[in-house]
Write a structure and sequence with these properties.
Pfam families: rhaM (PF05336). Keywords: Carbohydrate metabolism, Cytoplasm, Isomerase, Rhamnose metabolism. InterPro entries: Dimeric_a/b-barrel (IPR011008), L-rhamnose_mutarotase (IPR013448), Rham/fucose_mutarotase (IPR008000). This is L-rhamnose mutarotase. By secondary structure, this protein is of the alpha+beta class. It has one domain: Alpha-Beta Plaits. It contains three helices and four strands, in the order E-H-H-E-E-H-E. A hairpin with a 4-residue loop joins strand 2 and strand 3. It is globular and about 40 Å long. The protein starts with a strand and ends in a 7-residue tail after the last strand. The model has no long low-confidence stretch (mean pLDDT 94).
């Protein structure tokens, strides 16, 4: 398993809406993520900075952010674009993180 982590930025005041949209994540999007090898996906919010921290375990080397060519992910990104910092194609602005420690 590979582990992938990155940050994103939530716009101020949209914490509850972000949680609501993810509580109601589309079943077809869940299926796509799992079919793409993502077995574990967690998103945490640092409320003091509106920074989202995402962590994924994958069976390959790609992450959810690499699925942007699919119509379903483009649709999700457009749905989320009004509450997050995004790129011109509506993809979330992400900052990849490098693992520096593992407790075994």
């Amino acid at each position: 398993m590979n582990q992938i982590a990155f940050t994103m930025k939530l716009l101020p005041g949209f914490e509850k809406e972000y949680e609501k949209r993810h509580d109601e994540i589309w079943p077809e999007l869940q299926a796509l993520l799992k079919a793409s090898g993502i077995s574990d996906y967690h998103i945490f919010l640092d409320r003091s900075s509106n920074t989202l921290f995402a962590f994924q375990q994958t069976s390959g080397t790609s992450s959810s952010q690499d699925l942007g060519e699919t119509e379903l992910v483009k649709k999700w990104w457009a749905y989320m674009a009004d509450i997050m910092e995004t790129n011109p194609d509506n993809s979330p602005v992400t900052n990849p993180l490098t693992k520096v420690f593992t407790l075994k």
